[in-house]
Amino acid sequence: MEMILGIILLLTAVVAANVVHLVYPKIPLSIYQIIAGILLASLPTEATNFTMHPELFMMVVIAPLMFNDGQNQSFRYLSSNIKSILSMTVGLALVTVLITGGFLHAILPETFPLALAFMLAAIVTPTDAVAVKSITTNMKVPENVNGALEYESLFNDASGIVLLDLALETYKSGQFSLSHGIWIFVYVFFGGIIFGAVLGSLLISLRTSLMRKHVDIGSIVIPINVMTPIVIYWLAEELHLSGILAVVAAGVVHSILYDRMRLTSTKMQMATTTIWTIISDALNGLVFVLLGVMLPQVLGRTSLKNLGEIVILAFAIYIIATLLRFLWVRFKLVNIHATNINRDSLLMALGGIHGTITLALAFSLPVLVNNHQFTFRNSMILIAAIVILISIAVGAIGYPIILPPKSKSYSKSEFQKELIKTVQYAINELRSSEKYSPEKAIVIDQLSSQMTQYHEFNHNVYNQLMGKTHQIELATLDRLNKEGRISDKEAKILVIFVTRSIFRMHKHSFLELWVILWHRLKWRFIRHRHLKKEPQNNIGPKQLTEEQRAETADILEIINREIDKYLHSIETPQNANEVAMVRRTYFQRKRFFMRDISMDSDLITSLSIEAFQLEHSYVQMRLADDQFSQELANALNEQISTDELVYTQSLD
Fold first, then answer.
1. What DSSP letter does each residue of 249-290 carry, written as one string?
2. Which Gene3D superfamilies does the UniProt record give (predicted)?
């Protein structure tokens, strides 16, 4: 039970950190998550006393994250930049481990023998592109730098893992063979890539075969896709290959499949993308929350004297690694197609932010080595944690100074205003074409919902509009009665329904109250006169026959048309949401009398699709007339297409 409670608390902390970041996004999300973890650790419950199982953590958390990163990459970019990627992920990783490890051994030879120094250096070698993205979300990062950081973090994780294993084996045995070390590195590194690519291709063949033979297989293919990284990682580790590289390679192979199927199996691809986005965000959040939870535990086992030395060592390690990254790019040991070599070198250096893999490697250190307590484990975990915090903090401070803020050619309010205009255009076109029908009213009501999520509802405006439409409603009833189009019998039914709906409003002006009361007295007189003639027919709206219901619906249709004319004449982007809500109020009232009337579902679908096409056409017309930018047009078309996709999926 405690384990379940612990998982719930972890997820709650992730969600809480996301909410706080949404309110104040200037601080990186990872910092909020670490703070949430620290607060979580302070709760008086044993449920937060987590025991880290490195193998399980790598397989269940890290493997899915790396697989998702792989399947979101471009194989074409990967193949065309293979030299640069190998330079950063193998060359720079090896140099960083050798120089950092050598420095630690040189200044503290008794504390850090070479094998132990290389272990610590290998732990802090992997970088985390997700942490970089959380910092640079609202900044203009050069494409070449962004691509280089993504692909580096994709593959240098495996370099760190392999180098850590080699250093750990050397520390245990006390012996190191260069030739054996090179062979192990090549076998584990490239063997993992080949194994993952082959197994990924086999799984893709299975998926494509299922998709050819069956149409709706999302319930089969999506679980296979989610389980793929866990299975591949486990099998690769059983063969003593790099499980991380295996899942990355499998993910890259899957990205090729998605490129080929971009315009097919749309529904399944949307579902897969959504599921992986949720999984990725949750797992990344869990890692940093766990770091926050573990920090008090690790600090509690460290004396103040040792803590000062550890902090100094962490700063030294970070400075060495960052300086090496800068020099590696500055002296063009890697070609990132820099347009400004000094700026791009500095951005690459600051982009060496550590995160999930570094934390996982630190906690993967064994508790016992050769049946003896591994006394350096706690200190190495703490050093790794402080390096992570330093790298995030420096990146959060440095990137905003160097990079300009990301700006769109349109504001949020402009997007909302133009979307409302787009929906209004579609509604007006539908209203002006052909004759009025119940199906068209339903479609217009559905279209109005597109605007509600982008406009703050103003109750005062709504109440004012309802007061005016009530006056129009009563005036229309008077006119229809004078023209003889409403009989006393029909008036009896409508007076009950109309006056009740009017008095449901909480606010009326003094003049409106007098107008409503005058009409109510008038209709009471009509009702009394009708009851003298036919006292036996005392029925209300709920007791209407199908014929009476249809007659009342026809009358309400006339009233709604008059109200719709008025609303159309005063509708603006500023009051569009309130106007839509008024329309919906009258439409729902009419549906009470239409519930026994059959609707043409095919016509509703046809009109809905026509409406979405009208919205796209309006955007293209506005773009052709240079009324707004291409970027805004793309955003509007994306929103319309998403709404259309949601609608078409609801037809199943």
1. HHHHHHHHHHHHTTTSSHHHHHHHHHHHHHHHHHHHHHHHHH
2. 6.10.140.1330
> 328 pLDDT band (50/70/90 cuts)?
very high
Closest alpha carbon to 131 in 353, 405, 387: 353
Per residue in 11-41, pLDDT (tens digit) is: 899 999 989 988 888 888 888 988 999 999 8
- Per-residue pLDDT, averaged over 359-375, amounts to 82
Residue 637 burial by Cβ neighbours in a 10 Å radius (0-12, 13-18, 19+): middle
> Are the CB atoms for 89 and 156 separated by under 8 Å?
yes
Which pLDDT band, with edges at 50, 70 and 90, does 522 fall under?
A: low
Distances (CA, A) of 443 to 74, 101, 611, 650: 40, 68, 8, 14
Which of 27-41, 98-112, 201-215, 301-315 comes out lowest in average pLDDT? 201-215
What are the pLDDT digits (tens) for 487-513? Answer: 666 666 666 666 665 555 545 555 555
| Local structure of residue 406 (DSSP, 8 states) | P
Q: How many CA atoms lie within 13 A of 454 on its CB side?
A: 22
List beta partners, residue 368: 373
Q: Residue with structure tokens 């997820």?
A: 11
Each residue's pLDDT tens digit, 417-439: 888 888 888 888 887 766 667 77
Q: Show the domains of the chain with their CATH numbers.
A: 2-23+52-402 (1.20.1530.20), 412-649 (no CATH)
Q: Taking a C-beta distance cutoff of 8 angstroms, is the pair 254, 204 a contact? A: yes
Q: CA-CA distance, 343 to 330, in Å (whole number)? A: 9
Q: How confident is the model at residue 305 (pLDDT cuts 50, 70, 90)?
A: confident
Instruction: Take residue 587 and report the two structure tokens written for it.
Output: 């439409």
Q: Note the pLDDT of residue 530.
A: 47
User: Which residues in 594-620 are b (16+ Cβ under 10 Å) and which e?
Assistant: beeeeeeeeebeebbeebbebbbebbe
Distances in whole angstroms, Cα of residue 475 to Cα of each of 472, 479, 520, 549: 5, 6, 12, 22
CB 574 within 8 A of CB 416: no
For residue 409, give both structure tokens: 């050619």
Q: What is the pTM of this model?
A: 0.72
Q: Could you identify the residue written with the tokens 């272990």?
A: 119
Q: Are 209 and 257 in contact (CB under 8 A)?
A: no
Give the 3-state secondary structure of residue 369.
strand
Q: Could you tell me which of 428, 63, 72, 120 has the C-alpha nearest to residue 245?
A: 63
Question: CA 14, CA 389: separation in Å to the nearest integer?
Answer: 18
Lookup result for tokens 């509007």? 636
